[in-house]
Amino acid sequence: MVEIEQNVWGMTPEGEAIILYTMRNGSGAEVQISNFGAAIVSVKMPDRKGHFDDVVLGYKHPEGYFFDGAAAGKSVGRCANRIAFGRMTIDGQEYSLEVNNGVNHLHGGTKNFANRVWESRVETNRVVMALTSEDGDQGYPGEVQVEAVFDFDDDNALEITYRAVTTRTTVVNLTNHVYFNLAGEASGSVLDHELQLNCSKILEMNDKQIPTGRLLDVEGTPQDFRTFRAFRPGIDAEFNHIRDFRGYDHPFPIDGWKPNILTEAGTLREMKSGRTVTVLTSQPSVMVYTGNWLSGGCPETKSGGRYADYAGVALECQNYPDAVNHAEFPSPLLHPGETYCQKIVFRFGTC
């Protein structure tokens, strides 16, 4: 049985309470989430010898989460990832969005869902968070009502369900931006973690980190994770702009994806501790980001230090980047009368 505690963790500058929820299962594993950014703050899991450690990146103080560039553990939206040049056309109308990442719009803008207080409540063994995004919010059309539901069970599986409805046709692409370090959040680089993905193709990227529209075969490339592969050997490869991006920061379409069907995307493992996390999702792709820009901009960490580049890896289940500008991609459009519903499951274990 999962027990849930809730405590006031801090306050925003506007005087809103930041609540920290601790979900603890029968084996002592626990997940902490915050209503600021609907964020995963801590995940404590056992290694193969039963020793518990916090395996996700995060900050010591709640104010560390205010507008952090890394979006550590947070729920990002309306549109995760990049929209080229901050431009899109919906129903024949052009929209200009904030350009906040080089020449692109990223993660829904500066004041995106990750940087707001969500309404939150406990429902039996789950935590439910809700947010209203007004018409015109960050330049997007339509009022959108969003929910993020967090479930944690005795099998050490954390499930996130994102739901949304809109008053006008708009773009919705929600994900959680949690960073994993399965050796422990203060243990340094994740480049020797090994990743396996059920992905035989990779989206070709241009030098502005936008998909060209082409799919490339991963076979024989540094992006072939069909069997377990460490990040380190390929981190400086020229293939598909890996070196230009300072590491992996690429969307992998999931083989056999079908809308509304939960599919296994892959597994991350760390062999010294034996910890693993298997990722399942109803989303069409997983964005693999090896924390290439973590140094310099991160607030004080949970362990009292500062994260260096590659201190964690994010496996962001989401639609393809810039999908609103690519008719051949799965559509990111949500229409009035429809319900957006996507699930992400992080199933922790050992090997």
How many discrete structural domains? 1
Number of helical stretches of at least 4 residues: 0
Tell me which CATH architecture applies here.
Answer: Distorted Sandwich
> Based on CA inertia axes, which overall geometry fits?
globular
Quickly name the level 1 CATH class.
Mainly Beta
Mean pLDDT: 97
SSE series = EEEEEEEEEEEEEEEEEEEEEEEEEEEE
Q: Kindly, what is the distance between the CA atoms of the first and last residues, rounded to a whole number of angstroms?
A: 24 Å
Q: Specify the helix fraction band.
A: under 10%
The low-pLDDT segments are: none
Main pleated-sheet profile: 9 strands, antiparallel
Determine the strand fraction and express it as a percent band.
35-45%
Structural class by helix and strand composition: mainly beta
Radius of gyration: 19 Å
Number of strands: 28
Concise overview:
With 351 residues, the chain is mostly beta strands.
Summary tags:
351 residues; nine-stranded antiparallel beta sheet; 0% helix; mainly beta; single chain; 42% strand; Beta-galactosidase, Chain A, domain 5
Molecular structure report:
With 351 residues, the chain is an all-beta fold. It has one domain: Beta-galactosidase, Chain A, domain 5 (Distorted Sandwich), CATH 2.70.98.10. 0% of the residues lie in helices and 42% in strands. The protein has no helices and 28 strands. The protein has strands at 3-11, 17-24, 30-34, 39-46, 52-54, 75-76, 82-83, 87-90, 93-96, 105-106, 119-123, 126-133, 144-152, 157-166, 170-171, 175-176, 179-180, 194-197, 201-205, 211-217, 229-230, 249-253, 263-270, 275-281, 285-289, 313-318, 333-334, 340-350. It has a nine-stranded antiparallel β-sheet, with no helix packed on it. The chain has a five-stranded antiparallel β-sheet with strand order 1-2-3-4-5, with no helix packed on it. The chain has a four-stranded antiparallel β-sheet with strand order 17-26-25-22, with no helix packed on it.
